[in-house]
Specification:
The chain is of the alpha+beta class. It is built from five helices and seven strands, in the order αβββββααββαα. The strands form two sheets. The protein has a four-stranded antiparallel β-sheet, with helices on both faces. Strands 5-6-7 form a three-stranded antiparallel β-sheet. Strand 2 and strand 3 (about 50-55) form a beta hairpin.
């Protein structure tokens, strides 16, 4: 009987990141334009997914919603300070997920992963 390539991929990503990835977990892998590797893991029935990022030493980061922008979480004082950073306050539009700053491609990938795994979070 042939080995399931999905299970083998999960094992490889688990070994690479040091994070336990089960055979039934939803997993997605992404490499950004700087060569940094990212893994998204959603376990069945759990409210939060996990983001693993090679640039963060694979430290698990909770994903409790789709990416948002810095403007969405900043206080009025922080918004005023951030509005002076970048052309036209571009830093305010920078996507984030928890404490992780993302580029646009990473945010789109992460948003797609979060959307695709909604049924798994409801499977409690």
């Amino acid at each position: 009987m042939a080995t399931d390539p999905g299970i083998e991929l999960r094992r490889l990503l688990s070994q690479m990141s040091g994070f336990s990835i089960g055979d039934r977990d939803y997993v997605s892998y992404f490499v950004n334009n700087s060569g940094e590797r990212m893994i998204y893991v959603q376990k069945w029935g759990e409210e939060a997914a996990v983001l693993l990022h090679s640039d963060l030493d694979w430290e698990p980061q909770a994903v409790e919603g789709p990416p948002i922008t810095m403007a969405d979480t900043a206080t009025a004082t922080q918004k005023k300070a951030l509005s002076n950073v970048g052309i036209g306050g571009a830093l305010l539009a920078t996507p984030v997920c928890g404490g992780v700053i993302l580029n646009r491609a990473e945010a789109q990938w992460l948003s797609a992963c979060y959307s695709a795994t909604e049924p798994l979070r409801e499977a409690r």
